[in-house]
Amino acid sequence: MHLFENFQQIELVDIIEFLGTIAFAISGVRLASAKRFDWFGAIVVGFVTAVGGGTLRDLLLDVPIFWMKSSIYIWCTLLAFVIVLCFRRYLIHMNNAIFWFDCIGLGLFVVVGYEKALMLDYPYWVCIFMGVITGIVGGITRDILINEIPIIFTQELYAVACIIGGVIFSALHFFNVDLAICEIVTAVSIVAIRILATKFRWTLPIVKGEE
Amino acid sequence: MHLFENFQQIELVDIIEFLGTIAFAISGVRLASAKRFDWFGAIVVGFVTAVGGGTLRDLLLDVPIFWMKSSIYIWCTLLAFVIVLCFRRYLIHMNNAIFWFDCIGLGLFVVVGYEKALMLDYPYWVCIFMGVITGIVGGITRDILINEIPIIFTQELYAVACIIGGVIFSALHFFNVDLAICEIVTAVSIVAIRILATKFRWTLPIVKGEE
Amino acid sequence: MHLFENFQQIELVDIIEFLGTIAFAISGVRLASAKRFDWFGAIVVGFVTAVGGGTLRDLLLDVPIFWMKSSIYIWCTLLAFVIVLCFRRYLIHMNNAIFWFDCIGLGLFVVVGYEKALMLDYPYWVCIFMGVITGIVGGITRDILINEIPIIFTQELYAVACIIGGVIFSALHFFNVDLAICEIVTAVSIVAIRILATKFRWTLPIVKGEE
User: Fold this and answer.
1) C109: how many CB neighbours lie within 10 A of its CB?
2) ipTM score here?
3) Would you state the torsion angle of the CA atoms of residues B186, B192, B195, B196, taken in this order, to the nearest 10 degrees?
4) pLDDT tens digit string along C121-149?
5) Cα distance between residue C73 and residue C79, in whole Å
6) A190: closest CA among A117, A137, A111, A101?
7) Cα B186 to Cα B184: distance, rounded to the nearest angstrom
8) In this complex, is the C-beta atom of B95 within 8 Å of any C-beta atom belonging to chain A?
């Protein structure tokens, strides 16, 4: 039984994906606005943040690019742009909700990326790679476009959450656990690790430079 | 009747494409020289500026990369490099001509990118996307390589001209207008918008940051 | 007779490839540590430095991405990370050995990239391009990720060595020289030019800016 085969669950998954896309796009638009980008620039950065990871994944797997099949990702980006434009004074009070959407979106993105490689019969380590790429490359590209060092490389346990999620998926799948359960446990783990890491300020050690 | 089927018009289109490629490459070489790049670096930045957009488009569409089929794009880039090297004192007086080639090249690049997606039966919004990507990604990659915020995100109506051009192409094509006329009207519109925007200093609003 | 068909020579080629991968990854990890990246960031930058060139080459050639077929490249990157972490006080005394591995790795990477295009029956200039891309794009991506101007564009005869190597390969192949000899002469030439260029501080001229 596959989670995505059930219509009602598809709807839930879709809603999560759209909320995640919007949350990712909002982070892009906000950082672009802090750099005084114009409307077009902010929308591009929002879109790239939301779809960049999945785009690189699909290029590497040599499958059709996911966002070229449906215009919904552009509408999510435009909605994110309008939200930032209209609610910019209140956004800071919405940080908590946006952070939640971002976490849940990340969990789902990693699961989607992982499964896309799994369906193509790649070994587990490639699946983990594709999950992580789906989750983090959008944010890396966003930071390159605004000419900053990618924040993911210096702060937060963001990527580690994706890796652990991928390892959990692989372990469960190895023991023939039902795919729907693999998906849910992986996504929940990623969300939980990310929230705990933010709450308790867990970080990875810095690599000490040479003298 | 298709514009590109007519031999004499092919020649005209080719000449426009080469002039556009040279103009794009010149902008790359000039910005690289301002950052004290060496010869190789300047040529690479010139080449990437000229072909970067079409390369990403071809990767996304999963078709053979256009510049791997003919070495003409390298020759155009080398010519652009020689022009900058030899005429650097006079380039500033050639700004007007270079700007014109750049505008015309942009118009053609967008049309070529749009049509490539159209021939593959993609919906209009994907065609517009591919036209815009062909037109702007070279300049974005150039600015990333010279470690600057992409100028297209903070200044000029450059990208908006590409989008409007794409919308015009879609509208004409929807009403079954002859493909050659679609191409010409689109390219002319893009050139006109870009020139008017530069002349009258039209810009998009900046996204205001949060307090 | 093909160099890579001989089992014992495969082993030698493999060892060279792993040493080259480790040397490339070390350069990524070291530069990331100088920017105070965390462990994950340093490993990503190391990996991208080692495989970035081959990845772009495989995307452009539309063939399966080489590092998705074997996990050895990740192990090489992790080993490079451990080396930097454990020996950071002694790394400066190992600079000579690392430089040698880096040179030999570069020679091999260019040969591998060149041949991959040659086997797909591309013309010589595409093969040279693919060799150069394999050799230099990893370092360019590394410098973009750490938010610096790519060092290859302003210093060292690094890329020129790759181009000359590609030209030598093409010339020998044109005259039907045995493939194994083409490979060895090309790799040795690249290593020699790179070492001589470093020793005698050969550089390309800077492109003079406009007044």
Assistant:
1) 29
2) 0.89
3) -130
4) 999 999 999 999 999 999 999 999 999 99
5) 10
6) A111
7) 5
8) no
